[in-house]
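Data availability excerpt. The first of two example chains:
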Amino acid sequence: MKKVLISACLLGDKVRYDGKSLFTSNNILQEWVAEGRVISICPEVSSGMSIPRAPSEINGGDGYDVLSGKVSVIENNGHIVTKNFLRGANNALALCKANEIDVAVLAEFSPSCGSSSVYSGDFSGTKVNGSGVTAALLTSNGINVFSQHQLTEASKMLQPTRGVRGFTEALGFQKYLASTTCSAVCPGRLSSPFSGSRTSLQLIYS
């Protein structure tokens, strides 16, 4: 079963800079948790940043510019936290590689997790097109990144691959079903040990 990386705040974890969550109530997300698909992380907390913490923005660019060393990530007090954001992004990438993840759903507008829009860097509340640092690094490594507003699109990416292999596997399963009864199959699925489980990574100092 394919896993999916999720921003921890979207699952209700109070890890945002203001000590709050960005809980997203959605049937698709709930199904993923119940199936045991979800691997969660807050890149910033995983890098050692505190809860709460000063708000941060990318100063005059986006995550790709941070990765290339062109711009920095700064807090509203002027403190440069670029290293933390790069460390958090690499923690997220390591999770994806360890779990063979190629789909991620991350919190939009975050300087780490924004996938199509982030704040401008002057703390005026202005949003600009661009990606956060983690989203940019994951995308650069072939991972499909979506926002919490694109769960349907992300779900389609998790569907089993069709074609010759998918057809033969389905045919084999149909033969298995023909040789057994529903009562022998259904209870095992309903009592799956993965129901309601998820793996969370919040503190990695590397």
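And the second chain:
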Amino acid sequence: MSENTKRNDNEKGRTDMIRMNRVMLVGNLTRDPVIRKTSKGMSVADLGLAVNDGYGGKDGKGEENACFVDVIAWDKQAETCGEYLRKGSPILVEGRLQYSQWKDKEGQSRNKIKVSADRVQFMGRPGGGGKDGGRKTEAREGGERRSRRFRDEEYSD
């Protein structure tokens, strides 16, 4: 392929980049789920998730660092989360990153990245360390194709 062909392909917007937007997180809820309804009556659950990351410190003692992530679950999955999850519940979330922009009351531009959940798996009871008799409950919303439909649904913070 000549240099001119490469330049023309790039000018046309063609790229050979791989695109992937997938997230898997395991953590504990920082608060009880907040359930809301969209203008079309669809349920939305706002979840706060704390994900712990451990590493060795300078003095040889292990240290932990927490990352706090906002998660959105939709439709029946949201209702199931609201019914069964509480602050401290351990969960696994699988989904994609979603970027939001808005203007606050003072007219300042704001933005936030959240995880839009395709799957939420309940890992046990709050504070129970997952020891719930080996049972795991899953709230799943029809997989990737169906959850993408909700991306443009009217929803405001």
